[in-house]
Amino acid sequence: MKLFIILSLVCYWLACCAPSVTELAKTSPETVIARKDELLARKSVSEETLMAVVNAYNTLGSTALNAKNYDEAEKQFKESLVLDNKNKQAKYGLAMIEGLRLFKKGNRSALWDSLEKFGEATYFDPTKGEPYYWMGRAYEKKDDGDFELIVEAYENALKGNLNPELKTEVENCLATVKIREKTHESFWK
DSSP letters of 80-105? Predict the structure, then answer.
C-alpha cells in the first residue's frame, strides 16, 4: 500500500510539474515541432496546443531570421501560416525576409519594393523598430540626399523595440545623416 501511495504521488508530481506544451514551445520549439503530428492528431485539438505549435514555428523562424538564414526562416514562418493563416508574427517575418532580399538586390526598383515590404512589416508589428531601420537604409541607398525621409525612418526606429546592438547602429546612422544634412545645407546657403 505504501508503494502505491508513493507511486501515485510521483505520478501526480510529474503530471503537475511537467512543462506544458505552451512552455515547451518557448523553451524547446524543436521538441514541439517533432511532436506536431502527435499533438495535432486528436479529433479536438485545443486552441492552446495549436497556438503552441504555431509559436514553436515562429520561434524557429525568428531564430533563423536573426541568423540571416532566410530560406529556413521563410520555411518556418510558412509552416506557421498553414496552421494559422492570420498569424501576424509569421507575416511580419515573411515581410522582413522579402524586404531584406529586395534591399540586397540594391537596384532602384528593388529598393522601392523593399520599402513597401518593410512598411508591411510595421503593419504586422508596429512595436518593432527594425523595419524602420531598414527603411532608413533603403532611403539612403536609393537617394542619400533625401534627408527628411532618412531621418524620419531612423527616428521611428528608435521609438520602437530594438536590441542594444541595433539601437547603437541606428543612433550612429542618425547622427551621421544629421551631420551630412547640416553640411549639405551650409554648402547651399
Answer: HHHH-TT-HHHHHHHHHHHHHHHHHH
